[in-house]
Structures are given as structure tokens and as C-alpha cells.
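Input set for joint prediction.
Command: fold jointly, output C-alpha cells.
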Amino acid sequence: MTDATIILDDKHEAEFGDYFALLKPRVMSLVVFTAFAGLIVAPGGIHPFLGFFAILCIAIGGGASGALNMWYDSDIDMVMKRTKSRPIPAGKVTREEALGLGLTLSAFSVVMLYLATNWVAAALLAFTIFFYAVVYTMWLKRATPQNIVIGGASGAFPPMIGWAAVTGDITLSSVLMFMLVFMWTPPHFWSLALFMNADYDKAKVPMLTVTHGKRATRNHILVYTVLLAGFAAAMFATPLAGWSYLVVAVVMNALFLRGAVVLWRRDEVVAEADGYKAERAFFKLSLAYTFLHFMALMADKVLFSFGIGGPF
Amino acid sequence: MAITKLHDIHTRRRSRNVGLGLALAAFVVLLIGLTVVKVTVLDPSIATQETQY
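C-alpha cells >
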């Protein structure tokens, strides 16, 4: 091999942005937001720099698990329209590079979080990465139509980690924040799967819509939405919920339940006729649901600190 | 002999090199910040204990 061949061999010469894309920046934004919320609503306080550092570690840890997911799932990503432009199927980054980046950043984020905060937060982050990369990606995703339900736990841990970074413990309040995201995940993803069915089918991922059909999926969405409303209401048993949370919880759960009932009452003929309008609207509503619940908890914390209102 | 003609590969490598350089610089700044905060915020009693060893 000559110098010329080395220079011209441009396979796998990825840009920095391609490596960054391995960290799933869009998923990372949800992780950062919910971890930030957990950190803000936790009792006591944390030095702003340590808080920032903790959020950064949680984001990097979440990104690392995304890279490990892309390493393992590159065969699936190549098939699905939504994912085939990701760095590995697009030929920009090799699987080995993704694995190396994922493992390195996983270890880095856990160790740095431990040094900045405490072992409880670091252990929760380590477990989250393990759960997403091993339990969800390597095991459940290809094995069961309940993949989204159990795998959703990994997306639900960040507010608990944010909380633990401040307090060093796990309490009912942080567990309920976990449950809020955990129970929200199935209706969120299944509503997406209702109008993305063909893609999962092609990739042979046992999504509920593929294995049990859309009728069963609609039933499941309704059940999980009812359970979700129960956990959202349970937050009133904690010192976190005030007037902001009350308003948001009542309005958003009423809308979400109404949306779930609408989906439950529809069938495929109606849905296909209007281009899955209600399913798309429900999916969009689900995005606002989590955002507003956590925003309300943070707003109440700020109001309480000014002596306005108080826990119920 | 200096390379006078830039290939697309050089542009992409530059992006990687600059990105990695900035990431490492940010890491150094963060570690310095963490050290300063840990030292100044550390509980004075613990700080006294630790200096005894």
C-alpha cells in the first residue's frame, strides 16, 4: 500500500457529526430534560456546576447506550426507512467504532458521575445503560411484543438519576417520576407503531401491531393510558405536586384519556381513510404530556421556594 | 513534501480532529471546574479530616 492509497481510501472516514449522531441526540434531549427535572425538584440543593456536570454525565451515558444500540441493531436499522440513514447503515461509521465509542463513553460517564455526585446516581446510570443496551436491545426487542413496555424502563430512569445526584437516595417521589415515564412509553410508541407498522414488519421486530394486530394495540394503549393517569394522580401523595401540577395533570390526563378512547373506538378502515389522523394527533399529544408534567413539577418547586402554594 | 491538493478526505478528517480537540479541551475545563468546586464546597469538617492523613 502506498501513501496515495492511504489518502484516497476514504471508506469509513466519518465526520465528527457522524459519531455524534451515534449518541441519538434527539433521544438525549428527553433524557436531559427529565434528568434536569429530577434534579430541580429534589429536596435540598446541589452546586450549579455539579448539577450541570451530573446532567452532562447522564446525557453522555444515555448517548453511549444509544451507540451500543446502533452497534447491535445495525441489521435492523438497514431495513427500516426511519433508521437506514443512521451512521452505520449509511456506511459512515463501522460497527466496531460504534461499539468502542459506546463502551468508552459508558464507563466514562458512570465514573465521572460518581466522582461528581454519589454512588447511588452512578449505579443507577450504570444500570440504565445496561438495561437499554443488554436487556432491551439484545434481548427483549427481538424476543417479545412487550419489548417497549419493559425496555421503556431505561428511558424512565433519568429523572431518578437526577434526583439521586442531589439526595443520594431513592424515594417514593423519584419512583413516581420513573413510573410517569415508564407508563407513558407504551402508549407513546404504540401510537407511533400504528402508523409505522410496515417498517417494523419489514425489520421483523415483534412490535405489538405486528404480532397481535392493531386492534389489540388499540386495547393496550387504552389500558396503559388509564394506568398512567393513576400514577400521575399518585404524585399528589408526594410533597412535589402543587397547583401547577394539579392543573396540568387534570387537563393533560383528560385529553390523553379522551385520545386513547378515540383510538380504541376506531378501526383500521376509518384510520386508513383519514391517514391515521387521530393516531398522529395522539402521538403528538404524548410528547406534550411528559413535557408538561415535568415542567409543572419544576414550576411548583419554584413557587414553593417563593412561599406560593404548597404540597397538597 | 507538503500536500498541496486537498481531497474530500482531508475536510472530513479536519472535522473529526477539530471536534475531538474541542471535546478534549472541554473535558479538561470540566475537570478543573469539578476539582475547584469539590475543594471549595467540600464540608470543612471532612476537609480537616482528610488533611490529617
